[in-house]
Specification:
The chain has 14 helices and 20 strands. Strands 1, 2, 3, 4, 5, 17, 18, 19 and 20 form a nine-stranded mixed β-sheet that branches. An eight-stranded parallel β-sheet has the order 6-7-8-9-10-11-12-16, sandwiched between helices. The protein has a three-stranded antiparallel β-sheet with strand order 13-15-14, with no helix packed on it. 57% of the residues are buried.
């Protein structure tokens, strides 16, 4: 009789491809799946009777800002508790590496931590730190455009010179050689908004040869969103690299109802190039407090404020009323600060979420003292509320959006599917009870319905909580392939 470390019996296996489930056994030896079949005959050190629960590949959170969290808080409870086994860091142009600060981290790099948290001047030093920390989840890394600008420019409110772009490109190439997944931009932020399309094209040049991707928090997600999408697609088309639009949305009340035309623009682009997007399942976003987004019609909650930490969790309107000032004046006094903006239409969000090109990303901010509930609840919310309760898509399709699809797009070798010889990143959950518990008023709550999570074959989380064992790794870039 063959031996294995873990044998999961009688599981309703959703393999990550989007096809219907099968009742199967899955055997794990060391960090790999060694066999899949009906009534496997194995001598297992540990046998788990799934009793018809769903066994899926571990969820891949394609849009995170966990760059420093995977090192400082390696237990990664907000993620492992919702079945996430891999996080992709470095989104929105901000990454913890390679970074050399001259003073305080510029907005929005301050979302990743304080100045002392930026200790990784080279990509290699960051990867060493991840390996030493051995977080509970795997880590794939994008290199942030704003981080590169910070390293080589005296100020960020202008376009880079040719020599500055060349210096940035050399640093990006070093990271790509070390296994980085690609380049991210955050052109909506003032620290990168002055960058020209030509600057981005020049930086994107190394991506094609590396087989890497370009992800972008576009120049705007509001009135000029179609122009911003055209720029993003142009960068991808001229550079011959795949484009992933980060947290696609129609932001601002004036843009509610525009998701159909936005998705049409995406579909047109996909006829001639590789393009996709990610989305979080909430009608509210969260970032630093941006004066350009202050709109008295929009409910804005302050998540942190350096000069006034006491207002965390209060609405901007409440603080403004107490201070007898306008919301804009109040926001100015609170900066630097973080905020949650309830500025998205639920109907638009649903339409984008269900699109076949959309992956799932939490965009959670682990350093916020009062975080957006997406940090703890994104993936169970998709599975419970939007798949099971609302029927927005099948459970198999929901799992595909968070497993097989992102593994293909980001080149995560032997991840995202339940296949023989693939890494044993697995999540066992109850499809009847899985649901997010985190709310805007009580955001730090683990989800319900997650029974067990394995990362590289290590049982890392159960319904009782973290196991105390951590099996996460740095994931270097493999070969990406796209199914349009």
């Amino acid at each position: 009789m063959l031996g294995c470390d873990t044998l999961i019996r009688n599981a309703r296996v959703l393999d990550g491809t989007g096809v219907a489930s099968e009742l199967l056994d899955v055997a794990v030896r060391s960090d790999r799946i060694c066999e899949i079949g009906v009534s496997l005959d194995y001598d297992a050190r540990k046998s788990v009777d799934a009793d018809g629960l769903v066994l899926a590949p571990g969820f891949i959170d394609v849009h995170t800002h966990d760059d420093t969290a995977v090192i400082c808080t390696p237990a990664m409870l907000p993620k492992i508790s919702q079945g996430i086994t891999t996080v992709i860091v470095g989104n929105c142009g901000i990454s913890a590496t390679p970074v050399v600060l001259r003073s305080e981290p510029p907005d929005p790099m301050n979302l990743l931590g304080e100045a002392e948290d930026f200790r990784y001047p080279t990509f290699a030093t960051y990867i060493d730190a991840v390996r030493d920390a051995r977080p509970a989840v795997n880590v794939g890394v994008l290199i942030g455009h704003t981080a590169l600008r910070n390293n080589h420019m005296d100020r960020l409110d202008r376009a880079a010179t040719e020599s500055e772009v060349e210096a940035m490109r050399e640093q990006l190439q070093q990271a790509l050689d070390g296994g980085a997944l690609g380049l991210s931009s955050g052109l909506a932020y003032l620290s990168a908004n002055a960058a020209s399309t030509e600057e981005m094209l020049a930086l994107a040049k190394p991506l094609q040869a590396a087989g890497a991707v370009y992800t972008t928090h576009m120049r705007t997600e509001a009135d000029g969103i179609l122009d911003a999408m055209r720029e993003a697609f142009e960068i991808g088309r001229l550079s011959h690299v795949p484009v992933i639009i980060s947290h696609l949305k129609c932001a601002g009340i004036a843009n509610w109802g525009r998701s159909s035309e936005v998705l049409h623009a995406l579909e047109i682009a996909r006829t001639s190039q590789l393009a996709g997007c990610d989305c979080y399942p909430y009608a509210a976003g969260s970032s630093t407090l941006d004066l350009r987004q202050v709109d008295e019609r929009v409910h804005i909650t302050i998540t942190w404020s350096t000069p006034h930490p006491e207002v965390a969790g209060q609405s901007l309107a409440q603080v403004a009323e107490r201070w007898q000032k306008s919301q804009l004046q109040t926001a100015q006094q609170l900066q630097p600060a973080g905020a949650i903006y309830h500025s998205i239409s639920e109907d638009d969000m649903r339409r984008i979420l269900r699109h076949s090109a959309t992956m799932i990303g939490s965009d959670g901010l682990p350093n916020d003292p009062r975080p957006h509930p997406r940090l703890w609840g994104t993936f169970p919310r998709v599975l419970g509320r939007y798949s099971r309760d609302e029927g927005l898509f099948s459970l198999a399709e929901a799992v595909h959006k968070m497993t097989g699809l992102p593994a293909q797009r980001f080149g995560l070798a032997k991840r995202g599917l339940i296949r023989k010889d693939y890494y044993a990143d697995l999540v066992l959950f109850d499809p009847e009870t899985i649901i997010d518990m985190a709310t805007f008023s009580d955001p730090i709550r683990p989800a319900k319905g997650i029974t067990a999570v394995w990362v590289n074959g290590v049982l890392s989380y159960t319904s009782e909580g973290a196991s105390g064992s951590r099996g996460g790794r740095f994931l270097p870039r493999g070969e990406s392939f796209w199914l349009q």
